[in-house]
Amino acid sequence: MNILFLSYGRFEYDGRQRELIKVCKQLGKTYYLTCAGEDYVPAEPEHICFRPAGRGAYLAFIRRAAHLFEELGNIDVVFADNRKATVPALRIKKKHPGVRIIQDARELYLRSEMTSFTSRVGCIFEEKLYKKADVIIAANDYRARRMQQEYALQKKPLVYENLRRLTYSPDADPAQLAQRFGDLLTGDGWRIISTSGCSLQRTNDKLVEAMAKVKRPCTLFLVGGSTAQEKAAIEALIRANDLHCVHILGQLGQNELKYLIDHCHIGIVNYGQYDSNNMYCASGKLYEFLYEGKPVVTTTNPPLLDLCRAWGVGEASDTYADAIDKVTGSYDDYCRRVQQAVQSMCIEDNNQKLVEQLKQALGLS
């Protein structure tokens, strides 16, 4: 079986995409078209890199995907990874009705909840592909059940959790990383990392304010992209509370991120609760923290609350300071439960489960 995997996500930064490609390779010969940075060199000829440039980049991606399908020939399955792959997948399906479609709906964007025209259009294309897809995949059971109800699907989508771990790349330089973060990691106290940048929708304003209320000294690192307005708002809060323990670091590469998490004590996993996609979040970052042995403090979104209650690996709370105090107060106990939990969270088993489900759904088993 020959598979064409399509994704408009950046290969270097998209852990779910990379794991799904591994799954596809267990099903058959896999060619994969993904976005990548200018400096990225693909490791194998089956990886076709698309370098987005300019305002017409997405349209160029759609054309490239359609042309690649024709160039390769004899493709049996198109794997549409996320919503921006739905348009080229629909185009291919229209011209080649016999091709089979696997659709990974990693997000849960409902048209009724979208506030922009572009977002609503994206939902329309997703919905069109739902009707034509042979297999639909969701990122957790909450989302799968909500999708089946919302779109009257005959079958509940398969569930593929965002289990993933960070790894250093072959060219990682420990000495350089130590120099990059050395001054930030000196001194006593608890080090906390959030990877949602300065996002106010994810309540990072409340997280920053909590640094003035915790019982034990803490340093907070805010990692990830932010708008200029969000960054300015967080900086204003830092000044207003006279906080010298909050550091805005922006976006980091994978080596930098892993190094920083390795040297922190607690990971923050926070989402808003203003729409279904955020309420029923499917956080890969949560698993990245756990695989690094770090307890978590999370918001009270149902999937996060469930995991914290089931495994005792952290605290889900609407009050950051209280949750942080609980974790720092019994830190060794939380770390012990994290180690126990990750022994039951095997990425390879998660992948193999999906492989078997796809084989059955496609009639290959």
* Approximate strand percentage: 15-25%
N-to-C series of helices and strands: EHEEHEHEHEHEHEHEHEHEHHEHEHHH
What's the CATH first level of the largest domain? Alpha Beta
Q: Please mark out the parts with pLDDT under 50 across 5 or more consecutive residues, or reply none.
A: none
Main sheet record: 7 strands, parallel
CATH homologous superfamily designation of the largest domain: Glycogen Phosphorylase B
What is the residue-mean pLDDT, rounded to a whole number?
Answer: 95
The spatial strand order of the largest sheet comes to 3-2-1-4-5-6-7
Structural class: alpha/beta
Looking at the structure, what is the overall shape?
globular
- Give the count of helical stretches: 15
Tally of domains: 2
CATH architecture of the largest domain: 3-Layer(aba) Sandwich
Say how many strands there are: 13
Radius of gyration: 21 Å
Distance between the termini: 13 Å
Short descriptors:
Rossmann fold; alpha/beta; 2 domains; 365 residues; 13 strands; six-stranded parallel sheet
Structural summary, described in words:
- The chain is α/β, with parallel strands linked by helices and about 375 residues long.
- It folds into 2 domains: about 1-165 and about 345-360, Rossmann fold (3-Layer(aba) Sandwich); about 175-340, Rossmann fold (3-Layer(aba) Sandwich), CATH 3.40.50.2000.
- It has helices spanning about 15-25, 55-70, 85-95, 115-130, 140-150, 175-180, 205-210, 230-240, 255-260, 275-280, 285-290, 300-310, 320-330, 330-340, 345-360; strands at about 1-10, 30-35, 45-50, 75-80, 100-105, 135-140, 160, 190-195, 220-225, 245-250, 265-270, 295-300, 315.
- The strands form 2 sheets. A 7-stranded parallel β-sheet has the order 3-2-1-4-5-6-7, sandwiched between helices. It has a 6-stranded parallel β-sheet with strand order 10-9-8-11-12-13, with helices on both faces.
- The two termini are about 15 Å apart.
